[in-house]
Every structure is written in structure tokens, then in C-alpha cells.
Predict the 3D structure of the following.
Amino acid sequence: MRDVYVFMFPGIMYFWVYFIGQGPMLEILTERETHTLQRMLASPVSLSEFLLSKMVRCFLLCAATQLLLLFASGVLFGISWGDPWLLVPAVLACALSVTGLLAFIYATARTKEQAYSLSHVVVIVCALVGGSFFPFHNMPAFLQAIGRFSPNRWGVLVIQTVAWSQPRRYLVKPMFFLCALGLFGSATAFFVFCRRLAKGAGL
Amino acid sequence: MKTLLSLVIKDFKRDLKRPWSILLFATLPVLMTGLIALVFGRGGNRSGPVPTIHVAVLDQDKDLVPRMLSYILAQGDIAEKLQMHPVENRDQGLRLLEKRKASALVVLPEKMTERLLKGQASAIELYENPAEQYLPKVVRHGVSMLAVGLSGAADVLQGPAQGTQDSVEADDSRTRAALAQASWQFLQELRHSLIEFETVSPAEYQLQVTHEP
């Protein structure tokens, strides 16, 4: 029974955390569309500080939610998630990747509605091919080949590797991919947001 | 940095005032995992991970081999996981399949023991329940193994077993007593497995699983 939970929970958790992380990203576009961003930028807050605050909040919200969910699932279902000193970096890497992907989607979308729809499509496709809803190894070979590029797959791998106390070297590659996605997505989104919001706010 | 921190704290304070959407999304993974585990894990360990297989058996032989088989299958863990339902005729067995009370019907042919001892071929009939997917296949593999085992045993034991059969047919009290003793010893030996297995706990080895992306 424990195996069923360890198989299912990390994927489902990673999928739903995307929806929690959407809140702060959505606020960036809402502030722009309701013209409250100009008012905020008239205060001593700079555009980069405003953007970074939203990204940091998204990251912290995702990390805190995942830690809370892992703790709750441990209490409710009796799952042991392995070494906490490895679990925390794994969760932080997952949160960073969620932040990077969402920031990138919201930065490239033109409107709030477009960002909302696009993020749903990306998140659901990533979850389906990344094995968030069913065991990855039961999927056909071609879907597994595609799924290996999904952040959901890397997220599930790091949590399961820690839970099953597998050798630490298995953590290196998925953690690297998660962090790379997070940093690249966040950095790109930051510059794209800065350029577009500065233009829109007349800065 | 100070401004950044105050902005984050301000937003978090706002989240704490209206936490319902976050809480809703946070409870969904727990609910979904619980439901999926209940469905696929059969509600905890109530019936265990391995289901009980129900097999209808029509014994047309009514001789030594079916009795030995029923004795062996009534021992230990097998008896818990394999439930035999003796039936009087083929129709009764097929009705059990229709009602989904059995995963398969096994028909042991007439004079199977006799033919086996004479080294003649017999056919065990197997009717699989089309409404089930996996359990009839398990029965099929079991019956295949039984057929191979019986064929091998018949090759090895043909001589002594034929002698035993002759003694039974001679029907005198001294040979019957000797036969009873020999049968008892034979059954005792059957209960003692020649090959046993031990489960190695994960703590004693390091799993070499390759699942890297």
C-alpha cells in the first residue's frame, strides 16, 4: 500500500502545486491590466523588486505547500519520505522549477487570459507525459521518451529517489534539470517582464 | 533587499487573510491520492495484495491423482489463495463461471490416473472465465505446470506406481496395510519441500535500479 502512495503522491502533488504557484504570477498581469502597477512604481518600489517579490513568493509558496503536503501525507497515509536533509533540497528544486516554468509562461503571454489558458495546457500535458497520474514505466516507449523532458518526471524522480533511499547519484541529474529549468525560466521571464512592463508602464 | 522582503511579507499576509484557494489546491493531492490508493490498493490490506482464486473442478477420474492434488492444494498458504469448488457436471461448473463465482473450470478426464500410470496421454480441459482478465491466466499457468509436473512424475514413478496399483487390485489385507504405510510416507515426503526460498530484506542489499531520465 505504501508503494501505491509513493508512486502516486509526488506526481499529483507536483501537478497541483502549479495551480498554487499561478497566484503570484497572475497578480503581475492583473496589476498591469488594472493599471495599479504604475501607481506602485510611483512609490519607492522598483520594477525589478516588484517582479522578484512575486517570483520569490511563488517559490516560497510552492516549497511550503510541498513540505506541508509531504508532512500531511506522512501522517495520514503513514508514508516515510526518507532523509529530511535530502528531501528539503529536492522540494526546493521542485519549487524552483515550478517558479521558472510559470514565470516563463506568464512572461511570454500577451494577456491574463492567454497566460491562464496556456499555463493549463502546458501543465496538464507535462503531467500526462511526465507520469503524474500513472506509473511512468507503464507508458508506451515513445511517450516515455517524450516524458523524460517533462519537469513533472524530474520532480517525481527526486521525491521518489529520496523516499526509496536510493543512491544519491540518482538525484544529481533530475535535480540539475529542475534547477536549470527554474533558473533559466526565472531569468528569462525576469528580463521579458522587465522589458514589456517597462514599456507598458511608460518607464 | 529590504523593499523586496517587505513586499513578500505583505503578499503573504494577504494570503493568510484569504487562504481558501491555496488550501483547496493543497487538499486536492491528498484527496486524489487517497482515492486512487483506495481503488487500486483495494482499501488497505483487507484482502491483501493477492486475491483469492476460485476454481471449479469436475473430477471425472475419482482416483489417486485428483485425491493427491486436493490434499496438496488444501495445505498451507495455497489453501488460502486457491479456493476449489468441486462440481458434479460440466453445466454446474459453467454456471459458476457465468455467475462469476469461479475464474476457471478444470475438468480432470476419466481414467486419468490409470492412463498416466500406463504412460498414455490424457487431456485436462480448462474453461476460462471470459469476464475476468488476469485470474483465468493464472489458473491456465497453474494447470500447465500441473500437466508438466504430472507427466514428469509419471515418467519417474511409473514402475513403482504400477506395482502399487497391482497391489490394490490384488486386494489382500497384508498388501493393503503395506500400501497404506507406503502412501503415508509418500505424502509426508510431499509435505517436505526439496527446494525452499528465503526472502532477502532490502536492508541486506543495495538496489541497483536505473530510472534516470
